[in-house]
What we know:
Blueprint: E1 27-31, H1 38-51, E2 56-60, H2 74-81, E3 85-89, E4 94-98, H3 106-109, E5 118-122, E6 131-134, E7 151-155, E8 166-167, H4 172-181, H5 192-195
Parallel strand pairs: 1-5, 1-6, 2-5, 6-7, 7-8
Antiparallel strand pairs: 3-4
Helix pairs in contact: 1-4
Amino acid sequence: MKIVPCAQKGDPVEWSAIDRETPLPPLLCVVGFSGSGKTTLTVALVAALKSRGLRVGTIKHDVHGFDLDRPGKDSWRHKQAGAGVTVVTSPQRIGMVMDVAHDHQPLELLPLMVGMDIVLVEGFKRAPLPKIEVFRPEAGKPAACRGDRHLIAVVSDASLDWGVPRYAPDDIEGLCDFILSRPLPGFAEESACRQAV
């Protein structure tokens, strides 16, 4: 896959956060309002892309804040005592909780995804990144990104004419084919995404 710059002129992007020497994976946002099925679609895409041999990373946006730790655990106690960063490591995984001064955008987090072939971002509907919207009219909420120049597809059971391809929620393989057939923003010269088609 040929990688293209993700930002267009006028888009607010903090490029200084990205080390241009390290190949970084392409990003794709899965967006929609709460209850639309973003997580269900993201999980299905992760499994389908992984089954095609890709290494998939994910970023989940939570505007309400979160706590990964459990009260009473040693790492929780470290943070409660005032540690700015706490890392938990084991032979199988690493977890990190870090205090931050602002809500980080996907491009700022991309250096954490080195080694991935693609990164799916759940949320960030206003980010200047390619996005797929999950839209369920029966949920009673409006479209989140209809007309957005970064919208590349919509997932919905409804018959829609948004000027982008529409996929049924259960057409995960068709959506994966679409994702892998098009250039996505990233910073490597070539990506394993294209080779997985």
